[in-house]
Amino acid sequence: MVRDLKETTLSSKKLGKKYGVSGQAVYGFCKRQGIKRPVKSKGHQTGECRLCQKLIQISKAPHSEFISSDTIRKEMGASKGKYFQHLRTLRSKGLVSQRFGRIRSKRIEEAYAIYFTKRLSILTIGRKVGIKNFYSTIRRHMELGWNVPPSLYVYDRQERRRIQNEIQRRKQR
Ligand SMILES: [Zn+2]
User: Fold this and answer.
1) Ligand 1 centre from 20 Cα, in Å?
2) Which among 26, 83, 90, 146 counts the fewest CB atoms within 10 Å?
3) How far is the CA of 49 from the centre of ligand 1 (A)?
4) Closest C-alpha to 33, from 45, 42, 25
5) What are the structural domain ranges in the chain?
6) Ligand 1 centroid distance, CA of 45 (Å)
7) In angstroms, rounded to a whole number, what is the distance separating the alpha carbons of residues 9 and 136?
8) Residue 115 contacts by C-beta under 8 Å, 6 or more apart in sequence?
9) What is the full per-residue pLDDT of the chain (173 aa) written as tens digits?
10) Residue 105 CA to ligand 1 centre (angstroms)
């Protein structure tokens, strides 16, 4: 019984049942013998985990799927192992998007940050951050169902075309 007391987390009541004594007797025995029972670990609680909460918070930012894993990890202040461990837990529970934390390249993160906010051609953005095939990255993400908004630059061109048409019409009058 001493071994059970020292090595298991079974309750005094359950151990008592096993050895045919009361739970109270088991408890008293422990006290008298000064036996320290191992503490039952609560396990990982997402709601109480600082790292998980931080991950959820970051994942709620706009375009969070396009933040690179390095940036997320640094913001959390976690090691690579810890980062993946908690991210996997959250993904499996559906608490963050399956796509969150998938981007490995800091350059791609930078390129997307520009893509979302500046009216620049994809080629120009690629040149700025030093990636040759940003266009194919975007295509690939679109095909995989990532929420990639249309390029601001395309809108700009459409706008320009509209203005040009307007000028033409005025000339024709
Ligand atoms: Zn956690």
Assistant:
1) 41
2) 146
3) 5
4) 25
5) 2-33, 46-92, 106-160
6) 7
7) 55
8) 122, 125, 134, 138, 151, 152
9) 888 888 888 888 888 898 899 889 988 888 898 888 877 767 899 999 999 999 999 999 999 999 999 999 999 999 999 999 999 999 999 999 999 999 999 999 999 999 999 989 899 999 999 999 999 999 999 999 999 998 888 656 676 677 677 777 877 76
10) 24
CA 103 to ligand 1 centroid distance, Å: 20
State the DSSP H helix or E strand holding residue 74, giving kind and residue range, or none if neither. Answer: helix 69-76
Q: Of 17, 15, 14, 13, which is closest to residue 2 (Cα–Cα)?
A: 15
Phi-psi region of 20 (alpha: psi -120 to 50; beta: other; left: phi over 0): left
84 CA from centroid of ligand 1 (Å):
10
Statement: the pTM of the whole predicted model exceeds 0.70: no
Ligand 1 geometric centre to CA of 132 (Å): 37
The CA 82 to ligand 1 mean position distance, Å, reads 8
Q: Phi-psi bin for 34: left (phi > 0), alpha (psi -120 to 50), beta?
A: left
In the reported structure, the alpha carbon of residue 46 is separated from the centroid of ligand 1 by a whole-number distance in angstroms of 5
